[in-house]
Amino acid sequence: MTQEETVLYFGYGSNLDAKDWNEWCERTGRDPSGITELEPCWLPDHRLKFHYHSRLREGGAADVEPAGCGHAVPGVLFSLNSNALANMDKKEGHPNIYRRTNVTVIKGDGTSVEAITYRVQPDRIGDHVAPTSHYVGLIESNLIRNNLPIVDLKNAIENNDKSYPVDHLFVYGTLMSGEFRGTTLEQFSISEGVKARAEGALYHLGDYPGMRPAKNERVIGELHRLDDVFTALQSLDRVEGFYGFTSPDSLYNRTLIQVEVEQKMIWAWTYFYASEPPAGSKINSGDWRTL
After folding, report:
1. What's the mean pLDDT in 215-244?
2. Which residues pair with 97 in a beta bridge?
3. Is position 291 within any domain?
4. CA dihedral of 228, 260, 151, 106, whole degrees rounded to 10
5. What domain count does the chain have?
6. How far is CA 189 from the centre of its chain?
7. Interatomic CA distance for residues 71 and 61, integer angstroms
8. DSSP H or E run through 152
9. Is 1 a domain residue?
10. Of 17, 155, 191, 209, which is most buried by a Cβ count within 10 Å?
11. What is the torsion angle, in degrees rounded to the nearest 10, for the CA atoms of residue 126, residue 132, residue 134 and residue 137?
């Protein structure tokens, strides 16, 4: 890897904070350059944990561990050049304390990319260790700065494994109220569908539509709040033909996007059509109900 080449890195702990990074580099006599903050993002099928005691932090240090359907850790996507990657390896104690790991990350527009992150080595994991208020503040302030929820952080502090930081679902086709699959969603929704819109393009695929990422275009749909996120998404994954974040065979890909509702932006699960839609199938109105 040359100085000019870069890798994508998912940050979720103290590395969200530029001041903390610069202070560490200054203490260790390292060049802090080569790290570029790109955008807020999510690590799906993982949850945040504090089960490693850091002498430097004088308390628990953050880790991410694989978890089931509906779990997701909010964070920030960075670009690292070779200098920054070497420094990040050193800061994280790779490979002895934290180890560098390849993961699939959901970007802010709902598309997925491959990135690296760092996870605590299994032999370093112990019981829950409470983090210091200063360390929590580093993470919390940067999540808020990036318009990301802090519920996953709070659950990790309380050692609550039932962490589902996103409990909303955006639908735009046959799962909407009154449509032929609307009753499928009703059994999992604890709220009436609220009119909402999201960035993307809508396509007519016969008996149902499909949404694809697109800049400066809007899809009209409904926002629902889910009761049991795990059960709801498992059932809807089967309906939508989603087989996992790394599967090439899914009909739709479950993803996370920001949805506009009542002049607010809310993170929500939704399903993107996984293939290129047929030519001429675009619904220009962005509304399945007004073709």
Report:
1. 96
2. none
3. no
4. 90
5. 2
6. 21
7. 20
8. helix 151-157
9. no
10. 209
11. 70
